[in-house]
């Protein structure tokens, strides 16, 4: 679906302020769901529960997706289960961070 691809492209423009990799390739986005009315639900996590930038990152995700043409509304839920680990990262992110061993 084109709208889902556009949403993923928007998510790839949002970066964790402490890591030079976007939130999608970092594996912080657990779920993206678009209903028939183009309302978007995103479930995401952060690399650590005590992240001081949590509100900022969640708002950046919400704003980026809200700006995608065709999106009616966006709901972002921040979750801590399952716990994030580097196995969720894309190959590109692992290479970028030098973790591709």
How would you characterize the overall build of this protein?
The radius of gyration is 13 Å and the shape is globular. The termini are far apart. It has three helices and three strands, in the order H-E-E-H-E-H. It has helices at residues 2-11, 54-66, 91-96, and strands at residues 29-34, 39-44, 73-78. The protein has a three-stranded mixed beta sheet, with helices on one face. It has a single domain (2-83), classed as GMP Synthetase, Chain A, domain 3, CATH 3.30.300.
Keywords:
globular; GMP Synthetase, Chain A, domain 3; 3 strands; single chain; 101 residues; 18% strand; 3 helices; alpha+beta
In short:
The protein is of the alpha+beta class and 101 residues long.
Structural class: alpha+beta
What is the CATH-assigned architecture? 2-Layer Sandwich
Looking at CATH, the homologous superfamily is Fe-S cluster assembly (FSCA)
Strand content: 15-25%
- Count the strands? 3
Let me know the average pLDDT.
93
Distance between the ends: 34 Å
Unreliable residue stretches: none
Tertiary shape: globular
CATH topology: GMP Synthetase, Chain A, domain 3
Identify the quaternary structure here.
single chain
Main sheet summary = 3 strands, mixed
Give the C-level CATH assignment: Alpha Beta
N-to-C order of helices and strands: HEEHEH
How big is the Rg? Answer: 13 Å
**Residues in helix, %:** 25-40%
Strands of the widest sheet, in order across it, are: 1-2-3
Number of helices: 3
Number of domains: 1
């Amino acid at each position: 679906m084109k709208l889902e691809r556009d949403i993923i492209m928007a998510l790839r423009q949002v970066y964790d302020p402490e890591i030079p990799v976007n939130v999608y390739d970092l594996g912080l986005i657990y779920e993206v769901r678009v209903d028939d009315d183009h309302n978007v639900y995103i479930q995401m996590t952060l690399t650590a529960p005590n992240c001081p930038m949590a509100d900022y990152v969640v708002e950046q995700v919400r704003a980026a997706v809200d700006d995608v043409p065709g999106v009616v509304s966006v709901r972002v839920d921040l979750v801590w289960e399952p716990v994030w680990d580097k196995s969720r990262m894309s190959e590109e992110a692992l290479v970028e961070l030098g973790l591709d061993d």
